[in-house]
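Lab notebook, bench 4. The sequencing result for the construct came back, and we need a structural model before the next group meeting so we can plan mutations. Quick request posted to the team channel:

Model the 3D structure of this chain.
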Amino acid sequence: MIVDSIETTILDIPLRRPHKFSILTIDSQALLLVRVTTRDGIVGVGEGVVPGGPWWGGESIEGMKILIDRYLAPLLVGRDVTRIGALGKMLDRMVAGAEFAKAALDMALWDAYGKGCGLSVNQLLGGPHRDRLPVTWALGADPADVVVAEARHKLAAGEHRSFKLKMGAGRPEDDVTRVCLVADALSAEADLAVDLNGSWDLATAERFLPEIVAAGVGLIEQPLPHWDVRGMARIADLLTVPVMADESVRTVHDATRLCQEQAADVLAVKLAKGGGITGVVETGVVAGAFGVTCYGGTTIESSIGTAASLHAFCAMPSLEAGSELFGTLLLADDVVVRPVAFEDGFVHLPTGPGLGVEVDEEKVARYARAV
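Done. Here's the predicted structure in token form:
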């Protein structure tokens, strides 16, 4: 299975509602569709995605396309798809960083490999430890009455019973008041977490996080900047609920340091920031060696990226803290013929060769960005 060509297409998909992070709000999501075609006609698909732009990981959809087209793709043409690990190491030697772009290629290579063997990616990874994952719904950084109403709608419909609130967009005092109001309304009937996207300093976190925990929030995600590992260790020691690292963990080396410093009780893994399926599975092995659990994060993917995430996450013994693979539910449309399946608060592992999804060419043509 030799790589013959690699094609990239930028897609712009509208969201069902605006999604607010700590520093910006988006109403559409840009995706980079990557297709790896082998000499015998197998087409593997992958997806490059960043959550709202380069503010999070330093890469943009436009930059990822150029990097793949001009630099990464030429390195892969003529190479054997089945040597994914070796190909990844070669790309790392030739191009520093760029995990988000490399993740899209890694997904497409795994998809082509699986299709060529007639096996699912999960089977290639050793088989599933689970065939579905619970899905936490992200509520955004909206006013308390808005997020409570949205959460209660989800609860009544039986769609979710775990929710994550975004923080860090406003004054800490106001944020804490808002979150405590939400917790007072929902903590008796739902599991609640908050995500600060690294927006607070240590002093602010030490002052306010205990109040949030006392109100009923059961998990704190990335309260401090990604570089403040020792500060994260202090917060983890201070609080009586789990602290989860997200921005702080991208590589296996990050995961090792966090575990050694006891700076996180949970590691949030995402294919995009981890360089793809290969890197995320390696991170899960490191976490498991330290007895730390993993959580399946999202960068608001379509069913392509969600399926790839499911294959990796369900193959990881250490991924026991659930997931937030709600991306396809937030998108107003999808780009595959049969989207990944959600039922009763769970997302189910796709079956079939490769990633188990088929690209909808009509949808691709509809959402493709004019170049």
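The domain at 124-348 is CATH 3.20.20.120 (TIM Barrel).
Will bring this to the meeting.
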